[in-house]
Structure formats: structure tokens, C-alpha cells
Amino acid sequence: MEWRHLNRLSHLEFHSLPKLNSLPAGLQHVTTLKMLTISHCENLKTLPRWIRKLISLESLIIGDCHNLKSLPNEMRDLTSLQCLGIFSCPELRKRCEKETGQDWNKIAHITTDDSHPKKMMEMIVIFVLVEYIIADFSSSRNVIPALGFIFSFL
Q1: What is the DSSP string of the chain?
Q2: Per residue in 76-120, pLDDT tens?
Q3: How many whole angstroms separate alpha carbon 6 and alpha carbon 39?
Q4: Domain coordinates in residue numbering, the chain
């Protein structure tokens, strides 16, 4: 696939890809990407060093990727990154703990981490929506009332 031709792509999700052990190398050419979500990719062990080339990336959400245990040093180069959400990845979460985690110095520049309530709520809404809609299309009708409740707090 010619990723470099996806010059308008702003949101991308990798969800429930058990054989995914690395992000596609061509993704580094999608410099317009603003939001990247990676969830339920149990064989993903590392994020690539070329992640620094995603110069427009503002939000990165990682969930249920239990073998992803650390972040690359190149996270420091993501100067547009405003939000980092880590859900159900206990080891990675611990490494990213504010000021004490081993990976904290790689992400300390992020202006809004997941402790910011409004941004965190937006990220949770996106994560929950994707979980319900992709995992069980028939249950998506149950999400709409819950979203009305969540959005009333935003």
C-alpha cells in the first residue's frame, strides 16, 4: 500500500489485530495524521523509532496492548502531541507515571496528559465507542444514551 498518498488522513485506528507486531512502515509518511489509536493488539511489542516523523500527531491512545511495555525515546520529538491515553496496559502505564516512571522523561513535554479531565473524557468516549461499535455492532445502539450522559459533562 502506498501510504504517502494518504495525505488527508487525520485519524487512524488499529483495533483487534492479534498478528500485528509492528506498525506498518509506510505509516511514517502520513504526516497529516492527528490521532492514532492502537487497541487490542496483543503482539505489538514496540512503537517504531520513526514515530517522530508523525509531526502532526496530537493524540495517541493505546489500550489493551499488554506486550507494549515501553515507549521509544523518539516520543520526545512529537512536539504536536497534546494527549497520551494509556488504558489497560499496566506495565506501560507504570513506566509513564508522572515524574517517577522510567518513560516519563520521554513524554513530559506533552501539554495535556490523561490527568486533564475534559481531554481524558474525550479520549474515553472515543475508546468506548470503538470498543462497542467494532466489537459488537448490534450493541452500538446501547452506546448512544450513555454518550448523551458523558457529553453533558464536556
Answers
A1: --GGG-TT--EEEEES-TT--S--GGGGG-TT--EEEEES-TT-----GGGGG-TT--EEEEES-TT-----GGGGG-TT--EEEEES-HHHHHHTSTTTSTTHHHHTT-SS-TTSHHHHHHHHHHHHHHHHHHH-GGGGGGHHHHHHHHHTT-
A2: 999 999 989 898 899 999 999 989 999 999 999 886 544 555 555
A3: 22
A4: 3-113
Instruction: State the cell numbers at 141.
Output: 445502539
Q: Cell for 102?
A: 522510567
Quickly name the fold that domain 3-113 has: 3.80.10
Place of cell 509531526: 55
Intra-chain end-to-end CA distance of the chain, in Å: 38
pTM reported for the whole predicted model: 0.75
